[in-house]
């Protein structure tokens, strides 16, 4: 039965962690997966999470199954965090929310829904994109295509290329948009460009599906980072789907907490869409885990914890900004002929360096510096004290 099974390739991101764990060098650095580390390169549990957990423990909750659609108070706070207190769609009860397993699980339910109800549609995904997007939509049985996004010459957005490719997509196609902090490039459209993308979706009948995995981590403001989906839904009156993750902004990686949301055109559609999402979730994992949803509810739903959370998020993104500056400086002093300013221009957790696969492999082998083969460095995994070491490794790899 199993004889014909071939070895699957390692995951482009989680495979890096596997290689890192096998390396016994004391110099090793894991700049692969986007997971926040402290200046001592230790994982961080936010204080607000610890406080929320204390409250949860004192509630003496049971371990019953959650409803297939998730924890009701969580579903309410998560939709509000995404769409805003003044959201027209929320006031008009045109929002569907299903608690799901962080970003990936939410995207997968959305993908399965598209495969069932929009069979034959093509899903347009930015080039480059997060290492799991093609797996998720492809495994759900959807056709996928790429649209231009990154301009290697300017290390910025190829906006004209993006508009040209999306304009040529057939009406009814789905477009995956990174809501903020584009992964892996750290390059986002400006508000003016977002407005044009929204208008293009409207004019060409393209369906926007946002992946919001870094709300609060891009600009440091939860509101600003949700500007694009809010604009599409409330200003432009578009129907959208949005996946959300609390892995990065609340550091709840292993708790697998997130949501799939849709803004639909009429309140009557809400129970119908939700019933289909529940149908898919039931057959996939039955119902979502409780603990993370309770934590999010305590933090987002409580004014005091909510403001503390914002401060802790600023500390995390502030540390990454400092690390960016230190790395840029270290590279400028070693290789002044090259323009390294992109490192502090890119936002979010990552730096997309343009390094080749061979250069990355050189860093893995000689320097024990692990990053993804596309040259993406997770700066959330770098400390100020290791910036010089990384710069040495990068310069050596580039000169070899
Ligand atoms: C990443 O891009 O490193 C993160 O989104 C983690 C993951 O699941 O790949």
Automatic annotation (TrEMBL):
Catalysed reactions, as listed in the record: L-aspartate + 2-oxoglutarate = oxaloacetate + L-glutamate
GO MF entries: L-aspartate:2-oxoglutarate aminotransferase activity; pyridoxal phosphate binding
KW Transferase (keyword) present: yes
Domain of life (superkingdom): Eukaryota
Domain Aminotransferase class I/classII large: 27-393
Cofactor(s), by name: pyridoxal 5'-phosphate
GO BP term (any one): amino acid metabolic process
Keyword Transferase: yes
UniProt keyword list: Aminotransferase, Pyridoxal phosphate, Transferase
EC number from the UniProt entry: 2.6.1.1
Coiled-coil intervals, chain numbering: none
Other facts noted in the record for this chain: In eukaryotes there are cytoplasmic, mitochondrial and chloroplastic isozymes.
Subunit structure: Homodimer.
Family: Belongs to the class-I pyridoxal-phosphate-dependent aminotransferase family.
Name of the protein in its database record: Aspartate aminotransferase
Protein's organism: Pycnococcus provasolii
Lineage, opening ranks: Eukaryota, Viridiplantae, Chlorophyta, Pseudoscourfieldiophyceae, Pseudoscourfieldiales
Entire protein: shown range: 97 to 496 of 505
């Amino acid at each position: 039965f199993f004889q014909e099974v071939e070895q699957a390739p390692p995951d482009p991101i989680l495979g890096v962690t596997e290689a890192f764990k096998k390396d016994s060098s004391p110099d090793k650095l894991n700049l692969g997966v986007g997971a926040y580390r402290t200046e001592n390169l230790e994982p961080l549990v936010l204080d607000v999470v610890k406080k929320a957990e204390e409250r949860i423990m004192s509630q003496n909750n049971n371990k019953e199954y959650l409803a297939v659609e998730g924890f009701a108070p969580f579903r309410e706070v998560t939709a509000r965090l995404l769409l805003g207190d003044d959201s027209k769609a929320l006031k008009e009860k045109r929002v569907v929310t299903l608690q799901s397993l962080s970003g990936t699980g939410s995207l997968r339910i959305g993908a399965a829904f598209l495969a069932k109800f929009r069979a034959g549609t093509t899903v347009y995904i930015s080039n480059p994109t997060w290492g799991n997007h093609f797996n998720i939509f492809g495994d759900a049985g959807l056709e996928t295509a790429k649209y231009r996004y990154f301009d290697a010459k300017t290390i910025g957005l190829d906006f004209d290329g993006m508009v040209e490719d999306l304009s040529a997509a057939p009406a009814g196609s789905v477009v995956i948009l990174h809501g903020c902090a584009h992964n892996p490039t750290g390059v986002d459209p400006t508000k003016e460009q977002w407005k044009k993308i929204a208008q293009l979706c409207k004019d060409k009948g393209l369906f926007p599906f946002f992946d919001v995995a870094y709300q609060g981590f891009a600009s440091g403001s939860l509101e600003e980072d949700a500007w694009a989906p809010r604009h599409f839904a409330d200003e432009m009156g578009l129907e959208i789907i949005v996946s959300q993750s609390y892995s990065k902004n609340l550091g709840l990686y292993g708790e697998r907490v997130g949501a799939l949301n849709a803004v639909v055109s009429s309140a009557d559609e809400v129970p119908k869409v939700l019933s289909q999402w529940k149908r898919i979730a039931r057959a996939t994992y039955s119902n979502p885990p409780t603990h993370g949803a309770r934590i999010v509810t305590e933090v987002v739903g409580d004014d005091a914890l909510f403001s503390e959370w914002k401060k802790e998020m600023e500390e995390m993104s502030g540390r990454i900004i400092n690390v960016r500056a230190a790395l840029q400086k270290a590279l400028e002093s070693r290789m002044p002929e090259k323009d390294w300013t992109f490192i502090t221009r890119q936002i979010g957790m990552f730096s997309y360096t343009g390094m080749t696969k061979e250069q990355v492999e050189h860093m893995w082998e000689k320097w024990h510096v692990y990053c993804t083969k596309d040259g993406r460095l997770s700066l959330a995994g770098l400390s100020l004290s290791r910036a010089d070491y990384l710069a040495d490794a990068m310069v050596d790899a580039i000169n070899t």
